[in-house]
Write a structure and sequence with these properties.
By secondary structure, the protein is an alpha/beta fold. It has helices at about 10-25, 55-70, 90-105, 115-125, 140-150, 165-175, 195-205, 215-225, 230-235, 240-245, 265-275, 280-285, 310-315, 320-325, 330-335, 340-350, 355-360, and strands spanning about 1-5, 30-35, 75-80, 110-115, 130-135, 155, 180-185, 250-255, 300, 335.
């Protein structure tokens, strides 16, 4: 059985769709959705609050009950990389424990966290709460996985950068057990230099409507459109390749996309993963068929058949030396249509989009 975790849009009709999929497909199921409140929230998560559904405790309570009644669990995301040291002050610790008790009263019995201290707090408060370690925690070795297991973690999300390192993933499974989860629709550039700093910015943006500049998103958009091979270097997993992960003992799959969930179609996306077959633009699938998303490139998923084979069959195939390897680059002409990319590239490099660089230049005048 393959279990999927999806971003919550907090719509009961979406739960109805998931429940229907669970009835129709016997080898895969939507196990849970995940998310957090945004109204009156002081505890950060891994996404900016201005991109998330507006949600208070009462609406969360209704959604959790409806989900549970339909056989679908809910996982609360409390996975900011820092709580501004709140959890290691006596007053802050008491507030966090009070908040966790509220979540338990709502009916939540699973939480995604990134801070080891928070694992200790949760497990001490209520050992029955299931704790999932976020990808933000960068679990990318068996030793890290084992350390979190000894702390009481029930599930871990492997860092996206090891998605195509099958030997490492297999070793992580051997160390942790069968509750290792991987993210399927990875958007971020592998081993991106901005990754830890981008997540650190969410410490503030996930509880306040904060940043004047979308600095990290801007830089990532520029890198990808200036070098389209990066679209292929991202550690996404095609629906057709899910079986390869199952072979090494991975049965849990996470679909990300809380930042687009209000206008996306997650039920449509997850069904392609259930089918393990998709004929279309992989980038639209990765973006969960967000109706506001205008694809800058077309990645023909069917032309990527066999792309994953060297990563599976050759140990240490990816040496993270892209300037020498050129394997992913070779699929650009085979599988990508870049006919519309230039206008998007011009836009993301313009002052109209890159407000940070525009204002930075003004300082020189």
């Amino acid at each position: 059985m393959k279990y999927y975790s999806l971003p919550a849009d907090f719509k009961t009709e979406t739960i109805d769709k998931y429940a229907d999929l669970n009835k129709r497909y016997k080898e895969s199921r939507v196990q849970e959705t995940y998310g957090n409140i945004t109204l009156g929230n002081i505890y950060g998560s891994g996404r900016s609050a201005d991109t998330l559904p507006q949600l208070n405790q009462d609406r969360l309570r209704h959604y959790v009950k409806y989900s549970m009644d339909h056989g679908i669990k809910f996982d609360y995301t409390l996975n900011a990389p820092s709580l501004k040291n709140m959890e290691i002050t006596s007053g802050g610790l008491l507030k966090i424990k009070e908040f966790l008790k509220i979540l338990c009263d709502i009916g939540i019995d699973s939480m995604t966290v990134s801070l080891p201290s928070l694992i200790e707090i949760i497990k001490t408060l209520n050992p029955e709460i299931k704790v999932k370690v976020s990808a933000i925690s960068s679990v990318n070795t068996p030793n890290k996985a084992l350390a979190y297991k000894k702390m009481g973690a029930d599930r871990i999300v492997a860092e996206e950068a090891v998605n195509r390192d099958f030997k490492t993933l297999k070793n992580i499974v051997e160390s942790f057990g069968d509750k290792v989860e991987v993210i399927t629709n990875v958007v971020c550039y592998k081993n991106c230099i901005y990754r830890p700093f981008h997540y650190n910015s969410y410490i503030f943006d996930s509880v306040e409507y904060g940043s004047s500049y979308k600095y990290y998103i801007t830089r990532c958009s520029q890198r990808m459109l200036n070098d389209p091979s990066i679209f292929l270097k991202n550690s996404w997993i095609r629906p057709e390749d899910i079986c390869e992960y199952e072979k090494i003992g991975i049965h849990h799959f996470k679909i990300q996309g809380r930042d687009v969930i209000q206008t996306a179609n997650p039920a449509k996306a997850v069904e392609y993963y259930f089918k393990e077959d998709f004929d279309g633009n992989l980038w639209e699938l990765i973006m969960l068929f967000d109706k506001n998303f205008i694809p800058s490139v077309f990645i023909d998923n069917k032309k990527l058949g066999g792309f994953i084979r060297p990563f599976i069959e050759i140990d240490n195939f990816c040496k993270n030396m892209c300037d020498q390897c050129k394997y992913c680059d070779s699929f650009v002409t085979k599988a990508m249509d870049l006919s519309h990319a230039s206008k998007f590239r011009d836009y993301v490099n313009s002052a109209r989009y890159d407000k940070f660089s525009e204002d930075l230049a003004k300082e020189k005048d």
